[in-house]
Every structure is written in structure tokens, then in C-alpha cells.
Amino acid sequence: MIKKNTENDVELKLDDLCEECQKNDESVTHNLILTGFKICKSCRVSKTIFPI
């Protein structure tokens, strides 16, 4: 069975663009696999230290 894309489907792009700072970084893909968030290494550290 082939599932058609609808408006409610979430499409995930595997690019290296951070959602917080909009920089291209290789660590974005690694953090996406580990945590489920598309953030770079520096944004992950800042979110850990300052979680607001």
C-alpha cells in the first residue's frame, strides 16, 4: 500500500541547517539523531546551560 502525502503529514528535511541560529553545521544531523532536535552543537550547549 502506498501512502499519499497529505497536509497533516510532517516532512523532515535532513539538511544541516540549525533551527535556532540558521547556520549550516555538521552537528545538526548528529543532534537530530541523538535528541530529535535540529540544533547545532553550540545551540545545544547554550540550551543546556540556559534552558529558557
What does this structure look like?
With 52 residues, this protein is an all-alpha fold. Helices cover 35% and strands 0% of the residues. It has helices at residues 27-35, 41-49. The N and C termini lie far apart (44 Å).
- For this structure, the quaternary state is single chain
Termini separation comes to: 44 Å
Overall spatial form: elongated
Tell me the number of strands. 0
> How much strand content do the residues show?
under 5%
Number of helices: 2
Characterize the main sheet. none
Low-confidence stretches: none
Q: Averaged pLDDT, please?
A: 84
Q: SSE order, as H and E?
A: HH
Structural class label: mainly alpha
Question: Could you say how many structural domains there are in total?
Answer: 1
Rg (C-alpha, Å) = 14 Å
Helix content: 25-40%
From the structure above, extract its key features:
single chain; 52 residues; mainly alpha; 2 helices; elongated
Could you outline the blueprint of secondary structure elements for this entry?
Elements: H1 27-35, H2 41-49
Q: What's this entry about, in short?
A:
With 52 residues, this protein is mainly α.
